[in-house]
Amino acid sequence: MAFEGLSERIQNALSGLRKKGKVTQTDINQATREIRLALLEADVNFKVVKEFIAKIKERALGSEVLDSLTPGQQIIKIVNEELTQMMGESAVALNKSDKIPTVIMMVGLQGTGKTTTAGKLANRLMAEQKARPLLIAADIYRPAAVDQLKVIGNQLEVPVYEEGVNNSAEDIVRHGMQQAKENKNDYVIIDTAGRLEIDESLMDELKNVKEIAQPDNIVLVADAMTGQAAATVADGFNQALDITGVILTKLDGDTRGGAALSIRSITNKPILYVGEGEKLSDLDIFHPDRMSNRILG
Ligand code: GDP
Fold first, then answer.
1. How many Å lie between the centroid of ligand 1 and the Cα of residue 237?
2. What residues does ligand 1 touch, defined as CB less than 6 Å away?
3. Closest Cα to atom 11, ligand 1: which residue?
4. Which of 87, 191, 263, 270 has its CA 20 to 30 A from that of 286?
């Protein structure tokens, strides 16, 4: 399960404090040192860890702990609150446009789950809002992506706008947007190209697509298994495109958790959903508080 190692180590670090009637500076130093190592080992960005530990220490030495009859419990509560804060406080929904269609542009590196997640989002919107989405296949560099999106469209009975891989992404998106207007689709979900790493020509293409589609949401799909690298990638996409949020995939795998814990602090953009499996129904709203509870057990 995701976060297993992190969860176990943080719980161990805090277990000694749980029943203490009095907590000393040494106890606090010991616990925070352990938590710091656990977070670094879970591949959380070191600056994020540093700030987090500083906050915990500051609060642990404050009156809310010292004046408490259960100081150990109080520190655990602080760790819980700060972990939640690190991941974004509360769940954030997609932006919705006043007029149809609401446009969602999916971006991300290859293999992160972008195409699958486009389908998962369509599925969710249909189930939640009886939405009538149109998927646009604008990943023209990975020929299989267009077919993959068509298969997903068939499965969900959602129309897919595609022109194969011989036209430019810009043209495909322009035409797809036109089709959505004609068919009065309330959502458009654009699957864009990915690469193995961020490069300038990819970003230029994505900027053009952004200009054409005027998306209400630019959602970065990031692979949780890549840990801290996912946060670095998110930062790169955010600087180029000003993303509106992140979907973290493969949280069902053996991820150490670093991505989930770093992304918000590094990009200041929320994690909207998490992918927890390969099925089109495996997309869940990201609740920072529940994730924190899951880590603290
Ligand atoms: P793209 O290149 O970004 O479009 O990636 P794909 O959508 O083709 O996904 C790459 C692989 O990751 C596929 O095998 C997906 O089934 C798988 N995948 C996507 N999301 C998840 C997830 O949340 N959990 C798991 N376990 N696999 C996922």
1. 19
2. 108, 110-116, 145, 148, 194, 249-250, 252-253, 275-278, 282
3. 113
4. 191
The pLDDT score that the predictor gives to residue 69 is 84
Task: Report how far apart, in Å, the C-alpha atoms of 123 and of each of 16, 52, 287 are.
Answer: 45, 36, 20
* CA 223 / ligand 1 centre spacing (Å): 9
How many DSSP H helices and E strands does the chain contain?
A: 12, 8
| Separation in Å, CA 93 to CA 68, 249, 270, 287 | 37, 17, 9, 11
CB 44 within 8 A of CB 258: yes
Give nearest CA residue, ligand 1 atom 5.
113
* Amino acid identity for residue 16 in this structure: G
Looking at the chain, the whole-number percentage of residues with pLDDT higher than 70 is 100
Evaluate if residue 19 carries a pLDDT over 80: no
Q: What is the pLDDT of residue 125?
A: 98
pLDDT for residue 257: 86
Ligand 1 atom 28, closest CA: 278
Closest ligand 1 atom number to CA of residue 111: 2
pLDDT at 1: 62
Range 194-212 average pLDDT: 94
Q: How much is the pLDDT for 131? A: 98
Binding site annotation covers 253?
Answer: no
277 CA distance to ligand 1 middle (Å)? 8
Calculated CA dihedral for residues 264, 265, 267, 269, nearest 10 degrees: 40
Reported ipTM = 0.99
Contacts of 101 (CB under 8 A, 6+ apart): 134, 180, 181, 185, 186, 187, 188
Pocket test for ligand 1, best of 278, 279, 286 (most atoms within 8 A of CB): 278
Instruction: Sort residue 35 into left (φ over 0), alpha (ψ -120 to 50) or beta.
Output: alpha
User: What's the rounded Cα separation, in Å, for the pair 133 and 103?
Assistant: 10
